[in-house]
């Protein structure tokens, strides 16, 4: 039995979608840069515009994509993403619609897709059903911001069965021993990365990165380095110089609200919107290169 289980596990790892996440980080590292991870809300400003925006972000050089599932009570989100969530829900966007968008993106691109959503809708949909359908739609990982590792057992098991990584958040106030326990869970194969939350607060574009960001990342790195687990930074990242700073000491930068807001500004003109997304991502991607 053990032998059979062992071979099944190995086979799983070879085909695990999550491995594409590690490959994206490794490729960027070989190129001397951090990865760029745009976040977009499924169905915002509309299904068609969100799909076009995702493809434009990929054309602009996104290394991975975070796809947001709208939720009625996005407690970790600021005004920009709360508004996008509300609008997407108004358009009837649900998990099925999000999986359809993921499938269409995966049909056009091999860029790893990470589904980002709150736990309640996933629980209501069915944890195993969600993981099975997310993997079938081409997703490589999941971020469930309101699910701490100690409560993540059932989802972690269902995700790993489908070869999906479950990516956990580490806020800047997290004590070292808590970081160590989160890293231990996050490092289990098939693995993704650690999402380092740059600031204490909600999502939303900021003008400046927090002054203590580098020392926070160094603190997480002390726990993650033995596992060789990549660190991505999100929250507030909006300018090319933010990405340039993050590239110096982290492995990835996540940009959400600034991009979602840009979509909103160009919602009236699809062509202008796609060009604006592509050019914005290009400007950020140019700064992912580590300066010597
Ligand atoms: O919007 P910002 O400040 O650029 O932060 C990224 C964030 O949008 C994205 O990663 C995200 C969207 N919703 C979330 C909820 C919790 C944690 C992270 C997120």
UniProtKB/TrEMBL annotation:
GO terms for molecular function: tryptophan synthase activity. Keywords: Amino-acid biosynthesis, Aromatic amino acid biosynthesis, Lyase, Tryptophan biosynthesis. Its EC number is 4.2.1.20. Pathway: Amino-acid biosynthesis; L-tryptophan biosynthesis; L-tryptophan from chorismate: step 5/5. InterPro entries: Aldolase_TIM (IPR013785), RibuloseP-bd_barrel (IPR011060), Trp_synthase_alpha_AS (IPR018204), Trp_synthase_suA (IPR002028). The active site is at residues 66, 77. It is an enzyme of class 4 (lyase). It comes from the Bacteria. GO terms for cellular component: cytosol. It catalyses: (1S,2R)-1-C-(indol-3-yl)glycerol 3-phosphate + L-serine = D-glyceraldehyde 3-phosphate + L-tryptophan + H2O. Tetramer of two alpha and two beta chains. The alpha subunit is responsible for the aldol cleavage of indoleglycerol phosphate to indole and glyceraldehyde 3-phosphate. PANTHER family: TRYPTOPHAN SYNTHASE ALPHA CHAIN, CHLOROPLASTIC, TRYPTOPHAN SYNTHASE, ALPHA CHAIN. NCBIfam families: trpA. Belongs to the TrpA family. This is Tryptophan synthase alpha chain.
